[in-house]
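Aggregate trends can hide what the representation actually does to any particular protein. In the encoding step, the backbone of a single protein was reduced to a row of integers, each denoting a local shape. The record that follows shows the chain in one-letter code together with its fold in token form.

***
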Amino acid sequence: MASMGIKTNILSRQTARRLAVPAVLALLLAGCTTADFSGESQVSSPAVPRQVEMSPAAQREHLRILAAYGGAYESAKLQALLAQTVDKLVSASERPDLKYQVTILNSPAINAFALPSGQLYVTRGLIALANDTSELASVLSHEMAHVIARHAAIREEQTRQAVLVNRVANDLLADPNLGALALAKSKIALASFSRAQEFEADGIGVGISARAGFDPYGAQRFLNSMGLNSQLRARTANIDPRAPDFLSSHPATPERVSNATLNARQHTGPGSGQRDRGEYLAHVEGMIYGEDPSEGFARGRRFLHPKLGFTFTAPADFVLDNTAKAVFGVKDGGAQALRLDVVQVPPEQSLAEYLVSGWIENIDAKSVEAIAINGFPAATATAVGDSWTFRLYVVRFGGDVYRFIFAGKQRTEAVDRTFREAVGTFRRMSAAEREAAKPLRIRLASVRAGDTIEKLARRMAVSDRHIERFRVLNGLGPADKLATGDRIKIVVE
């Protein structure tokens, strides 16, 4: 769904594969980082740029990236800004002969990475988080540094495949019970850069930015914003704040900030170099913020998919995450979890028969029951693992079958009732609801006399933590203030 595996062209054509109960738990808690039963992806992608020669392996990786991150985000003005920034960086780099092409990914995730071929990727979530061109340049130059230093090529050889540089949100936690939501990401399994390689890329990247005329302290500011964002995510999604918050393979954020500051001081003092904040914000204005409704999106614990025409509401206190393979949800740090995806089931096969057809093991045959959910044919059953119990629902909607997998460490009547009530909210969206499902967008506003952060934050069309989200979006630390005339970003419907 720009994420969800209910993306129309990905999962509505899939066929089911057999899942053992432990695999179901892995799908709920690991988000299919290694297991995949979504079938072949069919992603519309722009033609491979002429200036970057891509091997067949790199082309396949390019398509995988597009599939995992919602395809390409089309914005002529942002693409022009990125191309202009990269051209300046290339001219100032140690390898001006290398060629790069940047693809903006249609994902709210905050991420950037590179292929050894010189293909660079930046998510629109990262572009939204940055607040001036020098911050964006710091990310691009860091990724270019991995290519220049052949880190990406070395890792590609080590993993025997075309792998990419995961930059900002790998979201892997050591304890799966603490991080069901964070682990429920449809990201590509990646090898990690070494600590030494990351510090080397930091140094090279800051040097490139400085020589290109950008403020070399952009890296410091962006890393600070990343730290604020990861802290907000930890509080919002019940993720252990002690877990890796930037990249599991990178040094801790404070260490990276310190390193970036020391690197910048080798070139110039604070206040030097181009930041181009006004121009940058003008390019960002109007871009989609958060999930793209055309591929499904979450509003609090409600999920809506206007294109496919359905909606459902997760149980109370669940946090939803929309990925390229499924919708995931978690409660209480992973004590309960859910997954929603879609498969094709032959029309002549009843849903009760499908439940016991072997796609999942350890089904309690006595629990299988044919039911109806808001007028749609459905069936339910339970399955039991070593320490988890599962409540399964399958619902026939249109030509596809939607699968709800609920998991809990303890099965009680109360827990089972909440699962039943949640699946009971699955229904067809009305024409008015589908028409009203518009994306959130970034707009600019000028700070006027008397405006406060609290006052401006109330204008944010977000479901919770308005002040914190406003500060993160605008790179404002806990002690930072606004001045009259400042241009700031807000999120509007």
Summary: The chain has three domains: 71-287, 293-435, 439-492. Residues 293-435 form a domain with the Protein Transport Mog1p; Chain A fold (CATH 3.40.1000.10). The first strand starts at residue 101 and ends at 105.
